[in-house]
Structure formats: C-alpha cells, structure tokens
Amino acid sequence: MNWYVGWTMILTAFITGAVIGIFFHNEDFLGGYHSFRRRILRLGHIALAALGMMNILFYLAYVAADPSTQLDIASLGFVIGGIAMPSICFLSAWRASFRHLFFVPVVALVIAVIQTLRMDAP
Predict the structure, then answer these.
(1) How many C-beta neighbours within 10 Å does residue 82 have?
(2) Who contacts 73 (Cβ-Cβ below 8 Å, separation ≥6)?
(3) How far, in Å, are 25, 76, 85 from residue 105 at the CA level?
(4) Mind listing the pLDDT tens digit of every residue in the chain (122 residues)?
(5) What is the pTM of this model?
C-alpha cells in the first residue's frame, strides 16, 4: 500500500505544483506571497512530495522485507499522515478553521515513526 500511496502522492504533488504555478506570477495570488492561504497551499504541495517519498522509502526498507503487526501500524500511520497532512493544508487554505485538524496527521506520523524505530533496522 505504501508503494502506491507514495507514488500517487508524488504524482499529485507534480500536478498541484503545475496548477499552483500557473498563478504564482500574480503578486496578489491568494492574498500575496506572505498570506496564510498561499503559504499553507505551498506547504500542502511540499507535504505531498515529501510524505510521498517517506512512504516509498518505508516500503523499500521495511514492507518488502518482513511483515509484522508493528509494521502494519507504522505503514498505516505513514499512509494516514501522508494523505491527511496535505489534505488539511489545502482545506486550511480554503477555510482557516481546518487548521485545528493538524493533530490528525501529526499523531499518525509520530506513531508511524515510533513504530518504525521499534523495529529492527533492515
């Protein structure tokens, strides 16, 4: 699952980057360069690429090697965090009140990393 989610996230990062990039030349796009909406949109775009890569690296290091319950929890945490983080960034650019949901991907990713650290190195 991490393999497909990771590559899908990277593809989505390319597409969202292209769409957002069409409007970046406009100084006032989403309230200007330093506006919350524009910054959180950029964060969502970067989160797609970075967390997509994390999912692929996790797959290559662990999932292909030896399935276990710890691995399943870590895997699910990376997937939930990877999807939720950019989603909440994009939703927060639309409605600032969505920023209160950032605990969801953070908790998922923290659990994923803790579970990964508890496993033996590949």
Answers:
(1) 28
(2) 111, 112, 115
(3) 31, 11, 5
(4) 899 999 999 999 999 999 888 887 788 888 787 889 888 988 999 999 999 999 999 998 877 666 677 788 999 999 999 999 999 999 999 999 999 999 999 999 999 999 988 887 66
(5) 0.84
